[in-house]
Each structure stands twice: as structure tokens, then as C-alpha cells.
Known about the structure:
Shape: elongated
Distance between the termini: 71 Å
Mean pLDDT: 84
Number of domains: 2
Low-confidence stretches: 1-11
Radius of gyration: 25 Å
Helix content: 10-25%
Number of strands: 9
Strand content: 25-35%
Structural class: alpha+beta
Order of helices and strands: EEEEEHEEEEH
Amino acid sequence: MNDPRERDDSDGPVRAEDRDPTHWKADGWAARIIKNEDDDGWAVEMTRDGELDPALVGPWTMGRDKKSPKPLDASAFATLVRAANEVRLRHQQQLKAQLHRSVTVTATNGERIRVDLDVIPDDDDPRAILTVFDEAGAVATRSTVPSHFKLTAESARRWLEHPGGEVP
């Protein structure tokens, strides 16, 4: 086990048995070259270990014979891992943005109040949590609202006027 190519940790080089010209596995990712269904070319898909669907699918370069795909190499694999990680990060940020909203409003007493809406997507019981923070940042109230509640500055003001009740 003195050969560095035989290392099994995720920070080390790709082991020989985890790579061939069209399929590499390392760093929690698998890259696989596939036939592009849309044309005569090739595509590469990057799938995170333990996930069924690829995080990234993109075009892949033809080999010199213009028939077969260009083989994967360490540099291409590292670039694909970076790109796939960036796609996952953007997806997570987008999901968080869809499930979390925040507005700051001025209450009738002049106090600046932040209101957060956190949607809890659940097939059986979809709902949202509306949290009101005072000027110091402490939680003033927390209530469950329907998952379709639209948080705007105006709806937050109405909620503050009628907490816990139906917002007119």
C-alpha cells in the first residue's frame, strides 16, 4: 500500500480501479461519459455518491477519430468536480431562497421589526413559520401560517396589527 495511487481516502489521487477512459470515481463523485441522446456526440454526467440523479450533465469532446469520446483524465475530472460542486451550491442557495423570505417593517410605535417566513415543504402537512423579531433581534412571536402565505412588507404590517388571526 505504499503506492500513492492505491490510497483510498477522498483527498488522494484516483485509484486505478476507480478510473477508466469513460468512468472515474473519486472525491465523492462519479464522472461517466454517455452517448448524447440529442445528437451524435457525447456527454458527461457527474453524480454525487449516494444520489440517483446527476448533479451536472454537459457536452463532452469527441476523440481524435471523431467517433469515440475523448478519455477522461485527472485535469478534466478535477474541473468537472468543481463545476458539479458549484451547481449543487447554486441549487441549495436557490432552494433556500424559495423557502425563506424576510422583510423589515416599521411598527406603529416606530420600532423596526424583522419578519421571517420559513416554508416547510411537507407532502402531508405543508406549512410555514412566521417569526417576528424585535429591534434587538430577539424572537417576539412565532406562528404557523399556511404554506402559501405571501410575505410582503404590507402583509407583515397587517400581521403585526392582527397577530395570529386572519390577515385582512
